[in-house]
Amino acid sequence: MIEQDTVRLLRECDAGVKMGVSSLEDVIPAVRSAALLRTLSVCREEHEALSTQINQQLDRFGDEGKDPNPVARRMSWAKTKLELGLEGTDAVIADLMTDGCNMGVKSLNRYLNQYEAADERSKDMAKRLIHLEQQLVTDIQGYL
Fold this sequence. Notes:
Elements: H1 2-27, H2 34-60, H3 70-87, H4 90-114, H5 120-140
Helix pairs in contact: 1-2, 1-3, 1-4, 1-5, 2-5, 3-4, 4-5
């Protein structure tokens, strides 16, 4: 049960971190503020570093990980393109990223509860991803 929950939690973290990186890459080209650009770029780098660690753990279990839900990914991309096309301000970017981070935090907490038998290392990775998402929300509040 521990290994099964561990792999399942790591898969969800993998999908979440991929969704986060993808969303950051969608909005970064539209950012106007140098400070916001720096904040989002650092966040993307932190997500990518955590992604590498998650994938190393998945490799230990012979698992290839999980991609984000394609429907959710397309909907996120479409909403981002639409809102940036209508009013591509840093406030819109901050709003989009805040919504995405909040959904990620909610999902990851649900998975932490669902896969409670997962090992402590995978739980720590999920908590680190949650912290990254929460920290980004805090860091960009001034742009809302």
